[in-house]
Fold these 4 entries.
Entry 1:
Amino acid sequence: MTDRPTLDDLSAGVPFANRHIGLAAVDQAKMLSTLGYASVDALLSAAVPASIWLDEALNLPAAGTEAGVTAELREYAARNRPMAQMIGLGYYDTVTPPVIRRNVLENPSWYTAYTPYQPEISQGRLEALLTFQTMIEDLTGLPIANASLLDESTAAAEAMTLCRRASKAPKEAAFLVDKDVLPQTRAVVGTRADGLGISVVDADLSQGLPDGHFFGVLLQYPGASGVVRDFEAITATAHERGALVAMAADLLGLTLLRSPGETGADIAVGTSQRFGVPLMYGGPHAGYMSVRDGLQRMLPGRLVGVSKDVDGGPAYRLALQTREQHIRREKATSNICTAQVLLAVIAAFYATWHGPEGLRLIAERTHRYAAVLAAGLRAAGFTVVHESFFDTIQVRTPEAARIVAAAADRGINLRLAGDDLIGIACDETTTADRLREVWAAFGVSDVDIEALDTATADGLPEHLLRTSSYLRHDVFHQHRSETSMMRYLRGLAAKDYGLDRGMIPLGSCTMKLNAAAEMEPISWPEFAGIHPFVPPEQARGYAALIDDLETWLAEATGYDAVSLQPNAGAQGELAGLLAIRAYHDANGGTHRDVCLIPSSAHGTNAASAVMAGMKVVVVRCDDDGNVDLDHLRTTLDQHRDDVAALMITYPSTHGVYEATVADVCAAVHDAGGQVYVDGANLNALLGVAKPGRFGGDVSHLNLHKTFCIPHGGGGPGVGPVAAREHLAPYLPGHPIEPRPGADTVGPVAAAPYGSAGILPISWAYLRLMGPDGLRNATGSAVLAANYLARRLSAHYPVLYTGAGGLVAHECILDLRPITKTTGVTVDDVAKRLIDYGFHAPTMSFPVAGTLMVEPTESENLGELDRFVAAMIAIRAEIDRVGAGHWPADDNPLGNAPHTAATLAEDWTHPYDRQRAVFPPGVTAATKYWPPVRRIDGAYGDRNLVCSCPPPEDFA
Ligand SMILES: *Cc1c(COP(=O)(O)O)cnc(C)c1O
């Protein structure tokens, strides 16, 4: 016997947790000694209240190796069966151009970036989003588009509420939905309408507008059946009767068909999926919305606009930010926060790559295949239902089920649209061989495709053919060669600051590592190529992965059931609140409609409550930032009979573990209310405490924070909702894939499993970390936050702390006293951090005039110390301004960020160039150069421009 390691030991290699967690053991020891704790556990037990402390380890599989976990994922992938997907219904096969897949989808410069709230370091993705908006505006023929929504169906639901706000129709007016709207869209619209008390009327609008009062009308163009109808007359009648018209339109179809704007529509919505974004079993994909002039200030979601920097050069930033809905809390009209930026960027680049001619060619080819397919079936005696279509045809035959099965045997999914009805959708990937296979499934052989092609007319109605041009801007014409495209993408990425450059210490956002091993599976065809409405036997791998993930998340949170459907945190909130309402309804509490929300809460909480039809009552916080228990008790007394829920974030958005959380939950339960624990901050809890155990009835989690799905510059996301047993029956359902027992609450997303395509990322994270790794991650995140708080507290007051003077996973630095005495603002510090090579912490949330810092477990001590040094150096600069050494209107802080171009100007500042661009700790070798100087947001809001500016502006 020797001490030689066994083969097992040798094979284990470096645990993945050591790759994910940036802090080596020696670093942790140094940091602990700074804080005066003997171990991470000692630190945790001092910070976390004993009342919520978890004694047992999480019951999750032990950590796997990267190779082992990849092999397991391969095995799951092999259980999925990618087919030729001709189901349609808003999801189509598409080719992601390899130059975009490799340089964008699989490139951390793009996928690790944050929402562009700091526009000076986000010009690349802002330009891409402006291209997206320009593309949507052009194709839909409407002047203002936003920078993406969550999917087509939620976009339609947002259109409904926009119509309600903009229409002068009487209060009792209903929302009218055409019968050819996509079934999943009808269902999501229904869920939203129920929440808000809006009545929805279904009608066949090819028969004209029914009697009654309507504030809005929803049309599908082309319809779910594939038919292309002329909506001009119906739109005119709707307008005469005081209703707005929203058209859900297919972007590829719009390259050939008259646009919604030209037809008179007020709003266009849809998905950009088929512009190069794989099917992903339903998502993530970027939904879109564009509106006519006059509605732009009511637009939900984010809007990119053109403004200028202090040098007068054009610069992009989010426009009308005060209008950004969730920030308005209970006054919000939408709860969209995380959207689908990465996918919108991909769709925009797809249009950039193909240009208008290329897109038109793809559309014409798609249409011609559909036309020839229809002609072949007609010639064989089959009934093709509609004369006018773009890409989808319907065939009426008593043999429908048998034919769909025969096609499946040939590797093709058709849609069984009724007992005697088959839907077949052509797309970018359709070929002549594919048509032969489809015909064969119908028992049709020996078709002469060439002859049929020559003999068959188009199926597009003459009077609906598009005559207006689109995508005329240079950006859609300049990058036809791959060399040019590659350089264009590189040039944009070079302007941006992502996790591939340095730390992004954004409080409340958890910008941790998105490991390559977690990311790789999402582009495997067995995950990427699955249509969301395939029969279950083709998605067994997904089913297994989803089942694991639901089980593991339930275990990690202490809840009984999990739904992965919500495709952002705020959608999880909505689903959770709808569950609470349905529960009260079923238990004689229909009148309970008050939602208590602490003043410190994230803005989406109040916005979601309003969308669930609840009244928001704000509960105050005390001087320590905790929920004011006395005020809570008085408020509960006032609303004892009508309180539906309390929404509480834990740890609080103030970054502390509130000791009284169990009391807060108990008080709400005593009053007959349910407790919603906002679980977006789970990075401070995993393996340490479970919200489902300390009083929560339901929570949402943000897989794009704690569970490693990258932020993508503002999306995608997954916001699972987790609930205790009594709320489980009220988790979101779906018409296409009904969940047993769930029939009272409809879907909150278009696809049954929302953004299913990115679930392998979180699955891999949990599987790679294991229970010990996850707990270590929590401990390391809390250690890092406390280390920063301690190191910085002498220079910037830390606003709130809990037991032992400790914070949780983030800390708020209070700049207000400093601003008062020196005039230097949080903005100045945030912009100056750019010169030091950092992304600013979260600014002015949840407290105005403060910075909220969240380092996460993924940063190493060197990077934390670099940040500390930068903040201390900035503090010294602030003091120089305060002391009058530098004038208030000409100093390195107020002038930040400094660009390379400023160096070439006449230098008149009272500090030198060295100080400007190479402050302490910054070297020429590692320098990040911002492409623009400070951006004037107000200028852009007064002169709203939301499409690509002419290239001359950049001369
Ligand atoms: C991020 C966050 C949300 C919203 O999540 P989205 O995915 O952006 O909708 C809600 N609550 C808290 C506390 C958050 O940090």
Entry 2:
Amino acid sequence: MLENKTMTSEDLIKLEDKHGAHNYHPLPVVLAKGDGVHVWDAEGRKYYDFLSAYSAVNQGHCHPAIVGAMTKQAETLTLTSRAFYNDVLGPYEKFITEYFGFDKVLPMNTGAEAVETAIKLCRKWAYEKKGIDENKAQIIVCDNNFHGRTTTIVSFSNDPVANKNFGPYTPGFIRIPYNDLGELERALQGENIAGFLVEPIQGEAGVMVPDEGYIKGAKELCQKNGVLFIADEVQTGIGRTGALLRVCGDCSCGGHCEKQETYTEPDILILGKALSGGAYPVSAVLANDSVMEVIQPGQHGSTFGGNPVAGAVGVAALNVIRDEKLTQNARKLGEIFRDRMNQMIEKSNLVNLVRGRGLLNAIVINDSEDSSTAWDICVSLKDNGLLAKPTHGNIIRFAPPLVMTEEQLHDCCDIIERTIAEFEK
Ligand SMILES: *Cc1c(COP(=O)(O)O)cnc(C)c1O
């Protein structure tokens, strides 16, 4: 039955509607195949993917090197649990820690699990290394954050859609405005502060790029106050913003140089999404020994975390980024994209601005947040062969796979311009 290719998109949408929980509101398109920057629907119509599964598919759909590594490992050994060693995990751990420049990694599966891991690590460090009284640790977070969907993570969200009626909320978090070093400095004077958890660009909030110097300044303030600087790069990491990590700043080396002046080293780095190129759930928490050593046997874990398939996929996915120079490509194409959008905006009454770094960008529609204009534009973009999704009402995020060519990008900009023009009054 799952092989039944005679079902239409309409049938398939009805099936999800009837049998699946309604926890998403998808664009009405049913995808059946992906390759590189393209996806095809159940009727065989071809689209440019301008979401990349929320930046998980940075390496492009079904990258042969990643799929090859995954299937080869899946035929050999899939899961041992961490009750035993496996012959992929050690080499993967060596590879990823050298790749990002940390002593150790703690492997998990999803982004939210990795954020939870970072929170646990930070709290334990605070009690055992910093000497905060048990159960008193506070972690500073930012307004409009998005770190995932667990009960603890939604506890410190200020989005009512994410947390209303999911209480009681986990205590131990203080929320401050994003992109405000003065507020951070004030909050750091509070009692029992253990960490500052931050997205170097807020993706879900609408690709909010902080001021130059914010990340570096935040780390310096944390360091001065003996507080862990925790970077959630689940969305911004792994080439997406035109640097290997957003904490690399505007270093254009692709992230494999000796640490540059622009680099801000997080005490804890959280990765997910593109760590697998979208092939498999793979996430990771990286830290140096002085922090990671507080976690001892039995104190944290995951049945699937660090499994052999994940290790093989992680290595392949990171090699693709390096070998194909996708970071550099994201940087170059991002500049072209924002140039093209700015040219369009000059003539537009409908689009206010474009912002972003590398290939993580958004345009803001000149309409109220509760209008359906952005949604309607995305439906039209789909009809014109490009898939994107609104975030926060009047913002449309544009984040294609990083394997895009310049020619394809211009083709996509033409589609966006043409579609927006249909909506100009
Ligand atoms: C997507 C995302 C997460 C959560 O990852 P999941 O794999 O969906 O649990 C956490 N942080 C950021 C910044 C994200 O974009």
Entry 3:
Amino acid sequence: MKLYRFLIFCLPFLAGAKEDDDQEENITCDPNVHIIGGTLTKSNGNAVDSILRFQCPEHTYPYPVSETKCTRSGHWFRLTYRRTKPICKEFRCPMPVLEDGMIRPQNLSYSNGETVFFECYDGYKLQGSISRTCMKNGRWNGTITSCNSGSQYCPHPGIPAGGRKSGENYMIGSKVEYVCNNHLVLVGSSVRQCLESREWSGREPSCQHKNSFDTPEDVASAFTASFTNMLGMTQTGEAKQPASTARKITLAKDAPLHIYILLDASESVGEANFNEAKNIIKNLTDKRGTNIHAAFKKVLEMMVLSKIIYKDSWAKTRFVTILFTDGKSNMGGDPRTAVREIKDFIFAQNKSDDYLDMYSFGVTDGANMLELNALSSQKHDEKHCFILKSTTELIKAFDDILDFNQIGDLCGVADENVEKSFRLRHPWHVLMEIPGIGSCSGSIVSPEWVLTAAHCLKDVQTKLDIDKITVQIGDKFSFSHVKDVYIHPQYNLSGLLDEKISQFYDYDVALLKLKKRIDFADTKSRSICLPCTSETTRAIRKPFPGTNCRDHENELLPTTRSVPASFVKRDRGRSETEAYVTIKTTEALRDACEANALHAEEYKHVTDVRTVVTDRFLCTGGQDPVAEEVSCKGDSGGALYMEKKRRLIQVGVISWGVINVCDTVNADKNHARDFHVNLFKVLPWLKERLGKIMTFIN
Ligand SMILES: *[C@@H]1O[C@H](CO)[C@@H](O)[C@H](O)[C@H]1NC(C)=O
Ligand SMILES: *[C@@H]1O[C@H](CO)[C@@H](O)[C@H](O)[C@H]1NC(C)=O
Ligand SMILES: *[C@@H]1O[C@H](CO)[C@@H](O)[C@H](O)[C@H]1NC(C)=O
Ligand SMILES: *[C@@H]1O[C@H](CO)[C@@H](O)[C@H](O)[C@H]1NC(C)=O
Ligand SMILES: *[C@@H]1O[C@H](CO)[C@@H](O)[C@H](O)[C@H]1NC(C)=O
Ligand SMILES: *[C@@H]1O[C@H](CO)[C@@H](O)[C@H](O)[C@H]1NC(C)=O
């Protein structure tokens, strides 16, 4: 298997330092500029060079300009001398165009919510949408409608609303060209060619208002479709998947993918969300101005270099660039030439355009759609260029894009959005009802396997008992049933009866095999990562191969300090919360933590704590330096886990606690501690049971 690489390069290109040293007289611009129906911001009050931006509510855009600057002559550029008072105008959809058919109703433009209907003349077949509705961003929903006579090789390519087409010949190799009517910007392909496959090359054009923006929903669906298609192909190597197969992001394990993220950190992006990244990147560069050209040049340089570094996998390597910008390159040459050079380089390597995807995200009212479109890939039925109204919208879009249901079965990935439900943020967690025992927790470790505590299953002996176990999975709490139960062979609750110890929890782990594979997408659930698996090596971004189990242990349970971890706790009101604890891994802390075990009712007469607390346990809880949470009864069997590189890895199974603080009034919390079976100590058993479905490393 080839090395799996997922490289992210963050490229800086930066940042206009103001040349504001002029100490002349104090020139200021008119402070009384307003916009009807909207608000405005000024970057530096009414002083020279201050940038004034208008903001308008949804459905509307600032007219006549969306931003202006205070000039040295004391005027707001292109504003003060105009008669038009700034106003937020409603977006209107341009008139659709249909050859060989009729459109009803006819009008020069249409407002949000209006619907038009299309009808083809006799002998022509209608393609595309039979009706389209004007959306709030001044665009029609659906796809271009055309009337197809069937007499030519390619079908009629359609004409975008608000645009014109030239070229009447639809034979193989013939081209049609598009232009948009005044003030509208062409997005998509301006030239399309009739291909042997009876399709038109490139992407459906549309004529958009220059202030129009993509809704987060549009971006999420279009970007996901395109991007996941590309990732899908990475996985299957050379074969292009037919568009009809499910498009699922499965991060490629066998083909390298290089992603270049270009972050425009110029002043004009200027939103608080970029500030942090900006500050770091700013330090790396000299402050000159937005230089998209230089950024793409840098990408080209890195691509050339990667050919040398990754010689062996080069033929399979695919490239993605993602540009975040306001689309205004104010210096450093035309970025389009750099983009062309990148494309030329890729094609010169005998790579088809499947190997290169260039996405652009514009994020302010003033983003230049025309320029951004030129910097993006034009692919059949895929969208690579997006304009969003604000960074808030961008974040919303990416939230939708990073819908974790779509990324195959990577372990330990969870939704990080705090507004999402608890189960979406803890998708591996399950709750089990076991006859005779009550409830216990568990963790999904694969679509078929749930890891839990053995003591939860102590009364489960017959097939009938197994059939009665229910496992509640995912966001919708769907039920799963259990096919088989595998208890660790060394677990023996009564193993120390001779020493008058009624309960002994060594090796308190069990695996449940489910009757049916869990559908992760459908149930919105997902597995957690297990230590010493190759999957976890990748998750914590360690070299693969070249990382061993000991490296995992050093990384996850270092003995030099106590280790922060979490578990899922269900309070008496039955709602689930995340409890934060620290695992006492240093010798001194561990000893102190374990000593409290002798305060447990069952262990009062035990003299050596090591009799009941074997090497298999991890200890958490305590009051110092902060009071830590301890588990309650139904939490048993759940995962003790931690986050590394934004992936979640289970290190323990919740086994027992010293004091039941949940059901005991005025419980003495001073000695409350929890003990968890350390997964590093039961690896041979895990490997024996799960070795066929995941790769354990030595
Ligand atoms: C310009 O403005 C600054 C600060 O507002 C003030 O200190 C200074 O006296 C002003 N200069 C002139 C020439 O008005
Ligand atoms: C065209 O649109 C305008 C503005 O929405 C409307 O007043 C007018 O009635 C429409 N004309 C037709 C023929 O529908
Ligand atoms: C366009 O939007 C209208 C109104 O929301 C909806 O009824 C219609 O199905 C949509 N058409 C397409 C092709 O998406
Ligand atoms: C930028 O560099 C300065 C001086 O070299 C340093 O003090 C500062 O912490 C750096 N800022 C960031 C965000 O790296
Ligand atoms: C591309 O293919 C041609 C013909 O098969 C070959 O001559 C050329 O060397 C190849 N170029 C690269 C960079 O692999
Ligand atoms: C558990 O331990 C007890 C006491 O040592 C022993 O008698 C019993 O056979 C053990 N049970 C199992 C299943 O090993």
Entry 4:
Amino acid sequence: MQLRIAAYWLLPVLAARAAPANIYNQLNKRDLSTSPPVYPSPWMNPEADGWKEAYAKARDFVSQMTLLEKVNLTTGVGWAAEQCVGQVGAIPRLGLRSLCMHDAPLGIRGSDYNAAFPSGQTVAATFDRGLIYRRGYAIGQEAKGKGIDVILGPVAGPIGRMPAAGRNWEGFSPDPVLTGIGMSESIKGIQDAGTIACAKHFVGNEQEHFRQVGEARGYGFNISETLSSNIDDKTMHELYIWPFADAVRAGVGSVMCSYQQINNSYGCQNSKALNGLLKDELGFQGFVMSDWQAQHTGAASAVAGLDMSMPGDTEFNTGLSFWGANLTLAVLNGTVPAYRIDDMALRIMAAFFKVHKTVDGLEPINFSFWTLDTYGPIHWAANKGYQQINHHVDVRADHGNLIREIGAKATVLLKNTGSLPLKKPKFLAVIGEDAGANPNGPNSCADRGCDNGTLAMGWGSGTANFPYLVTPDAALQAQALQDGSRYESILTNYATSQTKALVSQANVTAVVFVNADSGEGYINVDGNMGDRKNLTLWKNGDSLVKNVSSWCPNTIVVIHSVGPVLLTEWYDNPNITAILWAGLPGQESGNSITDVLYGKVNPSGRSPFTWGATRESYGADVLYTPNNGNGAPQQDFSEGVFIDYRYFDKANSTVIYEFGHGLSYTTFEYSNIRVEKSNAGPYRPTTGTTAPAPTFGNFSTDLNDYVFPSDELEYIYQYIYPYLNTTDAKNASADPYYGKTAEEFLPPHATDDTPQPLLRSSGGNSPGGNPQLYDIMYTITADITNTGSIVGDEVVQLYVSLGGPNDPKVVLRDFGKLRIEPGQTAQFRGTLTRRDLSNWDTGLQDWVVSNYTKTVYVGRSSRKLDLSAVLL
Ligand SMILES: *[C@@H]1O[C@H](CO)[C@@H](O)[C@H](O)[C@H]1NC(C)=O
Ligand SMILES: *[C@@H]1O[C@H](CO)[C@@H](O)[C@H](O)[C@H]1NC(C)=O
Ligand SMILES: *[C@@H]1O[C@H](CO)[C@@H](O)[C@H](O)[C@H]1NC(C)=O
Ligand SMILES: *[C@@H]1O[C@H](CO)[C@@H](O)[C@H](O)[C@H]1NC(C)=O
Ligand SMILES: *[C@@H]1O[C@H](CO)[C@@H](O)[C@H](O)[C@H]1NC(C)=O
Ligand SMILES: *[C@@H]1O[C@H](CO)[C@@H](O)[C@H](O)[C@H]1NC(C)=O
Ligand SMILES: *[C@@H]1O[C@H](CO)[C@@H](O)[C@H](O)[C@H]1NC(C)=O
Ligand SMILES: *[C@@H]1O[C@H](CO)[C@@H](O)[C@H](O)[C@H]1NC(C)=O
Ligand SMILES: *[C@@H]1O[C@H](CO)[C@@H](O)[C@H](O)[C@H]1NC(C)=O
Ligand SMILES: *[C@@H]1O[C@H](CO)[C@@H](O)[C@H](O)[C@H]1NC(C)=O
């Protein structure tokens, strides 16, 4: 196996300050597509804020561990070797059961009696920190109740560079501030509930196509390496790692590195990304786990900052591992320094102790991902250990109510010319497959890999089984019957003559449900390899809307989708009296939309992305065909920070509905902006050095001490162990290149254990970067008056123009959601931190507040900026 490590630097070319406006076009591909080496891998800081107690407990625990135990803790036991989607080896001697890493960001994947929550993107549309936190807390509670130790979410990569990208819905928004708040509130919720969160995928994981070589071959492209996301340093800071900084600051216990390459170095062995950005600059104290099969090397990934190999085998079910026995050998033969394996174990245990007091009392893992059967083999791949593997523990509590509330409060009322809210309509006609049930049941397609019936989540590993799914048809019919309305529904998009006959009748209020789906790259739905192949509605949806609205003057359209769809052909038809985006609402879908349509919940969702008129109007797009022969497809993020609304603003394009847009059944007026400057003082770069790398405990170098203990343990087929098969190191490693020394194949400083200088932009003891970046520089207040006749929630948005020629027109920096009674005025209060006002200076390698005049705006969307003031 060829070793792939970070290529040597060319990046200083990017360091030119005061870059010209079109810098990205001037750089040639080489400049953008190499990743500098950053070594050694930072070791934990015992004084890090929020981690001290966890560190002390972890140090005590790790000090008692043997080398085999440390390797066990860092290496997954193999695909389907145990119950969860990933597990590491247990430490029976110290009473720690095997830790369970399990999907997913919207609920527990593949189990039963769990809730199916709204997607990340949907909860982002609430613009409500409290609801994001409560969703995280509920997911964390459910995970804990099933015996899951690390839940594999939330998601900030993809952030949503391209609207067609398959997994955008798992994350929050293409705006880094909204995503950052989504990350931190979710993480706090999950971890307060007693489960470790995992911020993923670090970083630049923006599309499904070509993320894995084998997968790409499956759809006909014979590439030898995965896609490289080529991201310049400024864009990396101002956009892609911004929300990860918030995640680290929120104390996230783990981070998952990504499948694709970053500047032509694999995400899980990219020393610039993991050692440099994540651990050095952001001061991340938890552990980095690989995405499943995203690890491609042993010692090289270890020194580049990977801490846990998932699911542990080189590829699914090879029975071989880059770590396991290889890591044991690599520590014994000095390739991987002892402090590095100690630091891996320390980071894992510190994350553990951050959410648990002790190793005892953990909920046993009481479900199996691989089957819903009560009894079966606990070692699924090996078909070994037949026993009760599913205990069917109901962990849902009252989460259905929260899901209904989020679904309603996330719904974005894009258009309303007066037909909403509904008040006992005489005749309600509900049209479209998306209003009804999947005829084969809501869980009939594996990992939701189909688009049958109403769409309430996308497909892939980011899914959960529905405990039930309330369809719009069921909920609206129940409401209609209660009101004495006449009710009929046609739950197909293709019954054209019957639909015409129905909606052409007198007194009809027609509600048309349409959708667009996407998901993860290992499932192909109707020719969509994860990423959407187009931005239009699925299953004839546009024709359905156009037809119904040509026959019925009161047509209301509800969209369930994974992101924007093109509304261009029909949105301004006057017969279309209302348009709503309901996202992916989860199990209570029908109840949530009924609450909004009937005004039981006054809509307050805001679009977390832009609705462009054409696909091209978004700028960046998915790369669908390899562009580098059989080599790694190259995706240059040449638009820099200009994605979504920043791109539309830069291009002066009109949009159908802008980022942040959403209507209410009441009206609001904005007045009286005030700006108060705080005395934050000048920025002081961090200085000094770390302590030298500590090691904990010692180990024998006699290979006899490491051979598989066959007298104590039964060997399980394909299972990954820390043990050696033989005392012959070369044979035990089964590595044809065995014997190369660290000096021969690892980069300089990879094994250095001496004190290291702290980066000026780093936080010292404060995770998330230099703490002064979070100093409040300005407090902005404004008065918001409810000028309508009913109570409503207004999402007040704070935007800033940083003023430079290369800065976006405006960027979102804060928001607040205010509940205001009719006739009343409430005060919005938002803040601007130093980071909010800074640009990343590539030469200085730090954040700098430029001298350009900065303007703050308080408004109701990215293009309705009611109030403004110059920052002095
Ligand atoms: C490693 O983990 C396996 C599986 O959980 C366990 O059987 C074994 O005892 C562990 N080994 C050590 C040295 O703790
Ligand atoms: C050790 O890693 C190499 C790749 O570096 C792999 O070929 C080999 O099979 C691994 N050995 C074991 C025992 O898993
Ligand atoms: C469900 O979806 C699959 C795949 O998209 C499709 O082939 C099938 O016809 C659908 N089944 C029903 C009952 O709608
Ligand atoms: C129902 O339709 C008829 C015919 O257009 C009209 O006269 C009547 O006012 C309508 N009633 C309601 C409640 O909309
Ligand atoms: C876009 O893709 C969807 C899903 O595959 C498909 O139903 C639809 O027909 C496509 N739209 C166009 C205009 O081809
Ligand atoms: C609106 O609906 C009426 C039927 O009530 C139809 O005659 C008219 O053509 C429709 N208008 C548009 C723009 O589709
Ligand atoms: C956008 O409009 C501004 C102000 O009218 C103008 O200066 C700028 O050149 C325009 N940009 C583009 C890309 O058309
Ligand atoms: C180690 O030994 C087990 C049991 O004999 C065997 O199944 C496995 O393939 C061996 N692994 C390697 C890397 O030789
Ligand atoms: C040390 O072990 C690792 C992992 O098996 C192997 O790749 C490397 O070649 C070995 N180095 C030496 C000097 O034996
Ligand atoms: C802003 O202007 C002052 C005074 O001219 C200068 O010292 C400082 O370096 C400038 N700051 C930046 C970020 O350019």
